[in-house]
Specification:
The protein is mainly α and about 280 residues long. The chain folds into two domains: about 70-150, no CATH class; about 150-283, no CATH class. It is about 85% helix and about 0% strand. The protein contains ten helices and no strands. The chain has helices spanning about 5-10, 15-100, 105-110, 115-125, 130-145, 155-175, 185-190, 195-210, 210-240, 245-280.
């Protein structure tokens, strides 16, 4: 071994692969460090892009759902509007005039009859069609005005409630005979839930299905018979039972008749709903 080699060993400057190892190591680490440096940049960018797409998708789905719910509420309100105008407003105005403003019974009934009378006339002239709900309320109010003059006899005062019920019952049964079931106007909004496609299914079935029409007539017949039975029971009780008994029993009879009509009416309402579901699914 020469002196030069000995000095090189002592100083650590050995030529060859061993001397190049550190340089090679640094060169090997450089690409790895570059990849590691890019990874944090690429990750947040990808996450931000995905988050943005998810937010847009959520906003897109939320929009139609909100509009759909609002549309359903609007359709249901439109379906219930005839009931509100022809029944709700006259009844509400009667109690408002009588209880809040202290008007007499017959005057409250007369004033609350103006709306149904106008609706009946306008419907007959403009649409060439009789508004049965408005006519019904008008008949009920006129009957109420007539029986309001029955004063002095407690039994007559109890019996006069049955006179109003009888007007409603005969009107419903008369609509069945005319093949224009009156209770369909109240049943349709609840069966269709105010949804346009279900309302369209009702209209198609009512126009083309004989079975559907029979179910409509059956539903109105059940309600007409139930109210007529309530009228007869109250009338008989008014002149056969003690007045103190009929004061509370009259209310029980009325509620019982309504409950009976609801339960029995399910025999028609159930099949009607199934036919609407099937028709809606097929369309």
């Amino acid at each position: 071994m020469t002196v030069t080699q000995t000095q090189r060993r002592e100083t650590g400057q050995i030529p060859g692969p061993q001397a190049q190892a550190p340089a090679c190591g640094a060169q090997a680490q450089a690409p790895v460090s570059g990849a590691q440096a890019q990874a944090p940049v690429s990750g947040p960018k990808a996450q931000a892009s995905v988050s943005g797409l998810e937010a847009q998708a959520s906003a897109g789905h939320a929009g139609p759902a909100g509009h759909g719910s609002a549309d359903r509420r609007s359709d249901l309100a439109a379906a219930l509007r005839p009931l509100l105008i022809d029944i709700g407003i006259p009844v509400g105005s009667y109690y408002l005039l009588r209880d809040a403003f202290g008007l007499s019974l017959w005057l409250s009934l007369a004033l609350s009859s103006v709306g149904p009378a106008v609706r009946s006339i306008v419907g007959l002239i403009a649409e060439r069609k009789l508004n049965l709900l408005a006519v019904l309320m008008l008949a009920v109010n006129l009957a109420g005005i007539a029986v309001s003059f029955l004063t002095g006899d407690p039994r007559a005062m109890i019996a006069k409630g049955s006179a109003v019920s009888s007007v409603i019952a005969f009107a419903i049964l008369g609509s069945v005979l005319l093949r224009r079931p009156l209770m369909s106007a109240g049943l349709k909004p609840f069966m269709t839930k105010g949804e346009p496609h279900r309302s369209a299914a009702w209209d198609r079935l009512s126009a083309a299905s004989l079975q559907f029409r029979r179910l409509e007539l059956l539903f109105s017949t059940i309600w007409g018979v139930a109210l007529l039975a309530e009228c007869a029971a109250r009338l008989v009780g008014a002149y056969t039972l003690p007045v103190t008994t009929m004061v509370w029993l009259g209310t029980v009879i009325t509620l019982g008749a309504i409950a009976m009509a609801i339960v029995a009416g399910g025999a028609a309402a159930g099949p009607i709903q199934k036919m609407i579901d099937a028709e809606t699914a097929a369309s």
